Amino acid sequence: MADFSLADLETIIHQRAHSGDAESWTAKLFAKGIDKAAQKLGEEAVETVIAAIRGDRQALVSESADLLYHWLVVLGIAGVPLDDVLKELEGRTSRSGIAEKAARSTD
Ligand SMILES: N=c1c2ncn([C@@H]3O[C@H](COP(=O)(O)OP(=O)(O)OP(=O)(O)O)[C@@H](O)[C@H]3O)c2ncn1[C@@H]1O[C@H](COP(=O)(O)O)[C@@H](O)[C@H]1O
C-alpha cells in the first residue's frame, strides 16, 4: 500500500496553487482557470481510456496518475473539497448496504 493518498495530493495542490512559483504547473492551471483545467482533465481521461483499451498497463498507471492529479486540480478550482466526493461515495455505499454486507462477511 502506498504511503500517499489523494488527500495528501489535494493538500499539495492547494499549497502549490497559491505558491506564486512561476515553474509550478498547478499554479499555472489555477491561473488559467476552470476551462483550461477541465480541458486538460478531458485529455488525460482520453489518454487513460486509450491506455486501457491497448492493454498497456504501465501507461494506464501513468495516465491514471495524470488523470487523478488534474481531477483534483479541477475540484480545487471549482472549490469542491475531495471530502465532498468521498462523502457522496460513502452515501452510495451505505444506501446499497454493501458496506454492512462486507463487514458481516469478515465477522
Ligand atoms: N501529480 C502531478 C502531475 N501529474 C501531471 N502533471 C503535469 O501535467 C502537465 C500536463 O501533462 P501533459 O503530458 O499534457 O504535458 P504537456 O503536453 O506539456 O501539456 P500542454 O501544455 O501541451 O497541454 C505536465 O507538465 C505534468 O508535469 C503534474 N504536475 C504536478 N503534479 C503534482 O503536483 C505537485 C506540484 O507540482 P507543481 O505545481 O508543478 O510544483 C507535484 O509535486 C506532484 O505531486
TrEMBL record:
Family to which the UniProt record says this protein belongs: Belongs to the PRA-PH family.
Keyword tags: Amino-acid biosynthesis, ATP-binding, Cytoplasm, Histidine biosynthesis, Hydrolase, Nucleotide-binding
InterPro entries cross-referenced by the UniProt entry: HisE (IPR008179), PRib-ATP_PPHydrolase-like (IPR021130)
Gene, per the UniProt record: hisE
Localisation per UniProt entry: Cytoplasm
NCBIfam families registered for this protein in UniProt: histidine_hisI (TIGR03188), PRK00400.1-5 (NF001613)
EC assignment: 3.6.1.31
Enzyme class: hydrolase
Domain of life (superkingdom): Bacteria
GO MF, one example: phosphoribosyl-ATP diphosphatase activity
Hydrolase is among the record's keywords: yes
Pfam entry (one): PRA-PH
Lineage, top ranks: Bacteria, Pseudomonadati, Pseudomonadota, Alphaproteobacteria, Hyphomicrobiales
Catalytic activity: 1-(5-phospho-beta-D-ribosyl)-ATP + H2O = 1-(5-phospho-beta-D-ribosyl)-5'-AMP + diphosphate + H(+)
Pathway: Amino-acid biosynthesis; L-histidine biosynthesis; L-histidine from 5-phospho-alpha-D-ribose 1-diphosphate: step 2/9
Protein name: Phosphoribosyl-ATP pyrophosphatase
Source organism of this protein record: Mesorhizobium argentiipisi
